[in-house]
Design a protein that fits this description.
- The complex is a heterodimer.
- Chain A is built from no helices and twelve strands.
- By secondary structure, chain A is mostly beta strands.
- The N and C termini of chain A lie far apart (about 40 Å).
- By secondary structure, chain B is mainly β.
- Helix content of chain B is about 0%, strand content about 50%.
- In chain B, strand 7 and strand 8 form a beta hairpin.
- Chain B is globular and about 40 Å long.
- The N and C termini of chain B lie far apart (about 35 Å).
- Classes of the chains: A mainly beta, B mainly beta.
- Chains A and B meet through strand 5, strand 6, strand 10 and strand 11 of A and strand 4, strand 5, strand 9 and strand 10 of B.
């Protein structure tokens, strides 16, 4: 069963405007973490923001904020004041709670390609 | 540079050959992960080490794949008898024990494998 769904294969945004990238997830585990990563054309995955399932407030990191709606199982990424350098693939990922002493791996969505227009 | 490093960055091989990739994690990180990313997809988990112990292996990790982390520092991923379907980006990530997010993973630049 697909755990992370990103329904937008590609998005365009005008420079300096805000954009929302959608992510929905599926888990029966009450304890989980949600991540967003950016992958430029160079290939390296860059951590952007994290939201824990028990966090009371939405996470924010500079121009990035995470719109966490637990009941709807959504964790949308909002990028404010888009810059040309924001053009990249964006991946939503989930970590479920670890069991048996091991640390849960990340489960990624298929990604959204964001293009920022000048 | 104190980030995760991977070597080589690119590898082209013929079907049936063996290949080995190396990952050097951030020095104080005890957790190390391997992922595979094919075109148009997100990374998929392959295996996980805590120190030198391999604690998790995905069903994607067929018996042609083997990974080691002999001294709890660098790790190697070997693919024997490569197939064209093995062509992908192989990503390594590391994370510290605990940490702010409890599992923020720092990724390396990846090794892009092309099997002809």
């Amino acid at each position: 069963a697909q755990k992370i769904t990103q329904t937008q294969p590609g998005m365009f945004v005008q420079e300096k405007e805000a954009v929302t990238l959608d992510c929905t997830y599926d888990t029966s585990d009450p304890s989980y973490g949600l991540f967003w990563y950016k992958q430029p054309s160079s290939g390296e995955m860059i951590f952007l923001i994290y939201q824990g399932s028990y966090d009371q407030q939405n996470a924010t990191e500079g121009r990035y904020s995470l719109n966490f709606q637990k009941a709807r199982k959504s964790a949308n990424l909002v990028i404010s004041a888009s810059q040309l350098g924001d053009s990249a693939m964006y991946f939503c990922a989930m970590r479920e709670a670890s069991y048996g002493g091991s640390q849960g791996n990340l489960i990624f969505g298929k990604g959204t390609k964001l293009s920022v227009k000048p | 540079d104190t980030g995760v490093s991977q070597d080589p960055r690119h590898k082209i091989t013929k079907r049936g050959q063996n290949v080995t990739f190396r990952c050097d994690p951030i020095s104080e990180h005890n957790r190390l992960y391997w992922y595979r990313q094919t075109l148009g997809q997100g990374p998929e988990f392959l295996t996980y080490f805590q120190n030198e112990a391999q604690l998790e292996k995905s069903r994607l990790l067929s018996d042609r794949f083997s990974a080691e982390r002999p001294k709890g520092s660098f790790s190697t991923l070997e693919i024997q008898r490569t197939e064209q379907g093995d062509s992908a980006m192989y990503l390594c990530a590391s994370s510290p024990r605990g940490g702010r997010t409890n599992n923020e993973q720092f990724f390396g630049p990846g090794t892009r494998l092309t099997v002809l």
